[in-house]
Every structure is written in structure tokens, then in C-alpha cells.
Amino acid sequence: MRCQSKEHRTGGAVEFKHQNISAILMEHGWQNIPGYKPRGNYQALLAEVVADRIMRDRQFDLAAEGAADQPAIVPLVTSITDVMVERPRVQQSAQQQRTSPRGRTSPRGRSQIVLRKIIRLRPSGPHEPI
What we know:
Layout: H1 2-7, H2 11-27, H3 44-56, H4 58-69, H5 94-97, H6 107-121
Helix pairs in contact: 2-3
């Protein structure tokens, strides 16, 4: 990578930079960089540089004009109900998943049960925190 060797950046730093550029592109309504999930924590200067670079690039204009001249793609699906499927069936209830194989309640399950009992026993009206 030219950016990595030129500025002595790690591969991770270059990855984050591409993700930030991808976010900037999407915010302007442009196509993001394929394979780079947009991140939202970029510097204002980076946003200015990216926008300025794209606005001055004739190749970008030509690509946009070429895409605009293409015929619209008509979706094959006319109704969402045509592609909907039945939801997966749940094999176990949430309570069954919290129990151990021997039928005993796991530590997390016990703490939730205790918490429910405390809430039920709590008097109504103003009270002190537990």
C-alpha cells in the first residue's frame, strides 16, 4: 500500500482511513468504497479534502454521467409478501436456555429470579433505593 509506506501508517490505520472516506462518500450521496464499512468518526478536514477531490475529478463526473444514462432496473419482486418466509421456530424457551443440563438454574437465571422476587416484595409508593 502506497499510503502505508509513505506515511508509515499501520494496516489498521489505513483501514480506518478508508472506512472514514467511505462514510464521507455516503453522506454526500456517493457510492461508498466496496469492502469498507463506513465509520462516522472522521475529521472535518478529511471531509473537505475528499469532497474537494471528487468535485474536481473529471473521471468521477464521467462515471456518474454513465450511470445516469443507464436504464432503470425494475425490481423482479412486485410484492413483499412474495418473498416473505415463515419465521424460524424457537426450540427452547428463554427459561429453558438459562437452566443447566441437570435442570438447575444457572447463576444468571438465579439472579434474575431473585431480582423478580425483590421487585414483587418492594412496597408501593416512595421508597429508599435497595
